[in-house]
Structures are given as C-alpha cells and as structure tokens.
Amino acid sequence: MDVGYIQDCKQHRKHLPGKILSPYVNCYQIISGTFERTKLIDLYPDGGVGVIINLGGAITLNDKIFGKGVYFDGANSRNVLLRVSGDVNLIRVRFNPGMFCLFFNADLENYHNAFNNLYSINCILPKNFFRFLELCSFDEQKVTSIEAWLTYNLSDPDGNMSLVLSTLEYISSSHYDVRLQALAEEMGIEIRKLQRLFKKRVGMSPKKLIKLLRADFARKMLDTCGSLSCLDITYRCGYYDQAHFNREFKDIYEITPNEYRKRLFSEKSECIA
C-alpha cells in the first residue's frame, strides 16, 4: 500500500495513510525504542478517536497505567499526557472525526475522554494479529498490516451516518463558522436529533467538535507558520480577539498559545540534538 511517512524524531515517527484510507484515517504514530528517562508526550485532541496498540512495556495515560494490549482512545476534548519509559513499542491509530464508526459498530457517547480495552466496544483484533505485530521489525510492516485490517472492516455509511458525514463536511468547508439551527433546518432534521447522532457517532456534540477543530487548526498554524504572530492567527482562525483565543486554547491544551509555541521550539531543538 502507498503509505506516506513524516519523520518526527528517531523514537517518535508519524506515517500517513494510503490512498484508500486517507479520507478516514488521520495518521499512524509509532513510538518505539528504549527510553532511559521518562518521556512525556502530549496527545493533542483533534476531534477524532483512535486505537492504541501497546506491544511493549507499561505506559501511562493521564496517570492511569496500561500494560500490553489494544485500547480504544475515546473522543477527547482535553489534552492527554502520555508517559513512556524503558522498552517501548506503541502504535497509535488516529481516525478523522466521525470516521471510526465506518470501521467499527460502536456507540461513542459513553466514551468521551475515556480509555478502554478495544473489546469493551465489541471490537476485537483478528486472531494472532497482535502477536504478528509484536514480531514486525519495521514500521512499514506494522502500518501495512494495520491498513489491511482496517480496509477489510470499512463499511458504507447508513442513513444516519450520511447525515453526520454531510454535517462534518459542511463544518470543515465553512471554516468552523456554523449556525447549527440553520444547518439542521436545511438538512431537514431536528437539531436535537443531529446532536444525538453526533454524540453517538462522533463522541461529542457539534458545538464541542467545532471548538476543538478550530483550536486544532490554530495549533497547527502555530506549528508551521512561524512568521505569523498569535494575534494574526487569532483573526485567521475566527476568534473574536486574542483573549478569546487564549481562553479556548488553554481550556483544551492547558497552556496559552505563546507557551505552546515556546514549548514547540524547545522540543524541536531537543529532537535535532
């Protein structure tokens, strides 16, 4: 499969999905190697949900310890702190918002900001698949195998899922400036039904998702647009003013945009070293 690759750091790599799964999967993150000191990694919420396949030693997610196994990473609305140390072999699959339910028949409403074994939502890896991933020596082997598994599970959307997908497409194309009542009326659906569908299929309300997606867009601009000030990004992302930007950003990531940018610069310097 044609899988893209982005080098982050030697022990923390990111792979892009192949052509078939690119509309559904955001990326695959692989963290592996021996960490002599505890490494803290921020897992930023992006409106999607994910699967964490832990093939190595114990990891800690928000102060809760997880051993070897496959875990469902719920629709998070706040930053998650991952702690790793010792021998680490971890794969994190990130789905785009709303897309997880095209692969697995799961009701996400009760899994907001939650980590559970994958089987708790009636999803099970194929027999011996976990053991096969343990034996893979290269990232490409792991990612290609996971892509084959996901492609096999991909299904066509039902009527309710089609409504959710249409709403997600509208949210994305409108740059997060959405009047939900007007949108629901245009789609011929009651807004309460739309909200219920989102909580079930996306894991959060449309309003919360819009807030997350806008913050994630701003965060990525902080990552890549070093020439833009925080004030520039404030208005490009549709915030009322910088105080509004700072408040919503800190509510999700627990630091201000300026603090995030300083931390990013520090991490890049450490990675180069």
From TrEMBL:
HTH araC/xylS-type domain segment(s): 165-263
Coiled coil: none
PANTHER family, per the entry: HTH-TYPE TRANSCRIPTIONAL ACTIVATOR RHAS-RELATED
Organism this protein belongs to: Microbulbifer rhizosphaerae
Source superkingdom: Bacteria
Gene3D superfamilies per UniProt: Homeodomain-like
PROSITE patterns: HTH_ARAC_FAMILY_2
Protein name listed in UniProt: AraC-like DNA-binding protein
Keywords, alphabetical: DNA-binding, Transcription, Transcription regulation
Entry GO MF terms: DNA-binding transcription factor activity; sequence-specific DNA binding
Record carries keyword DNA-binding: yes
Pfam families: DUF6597, HTH_18
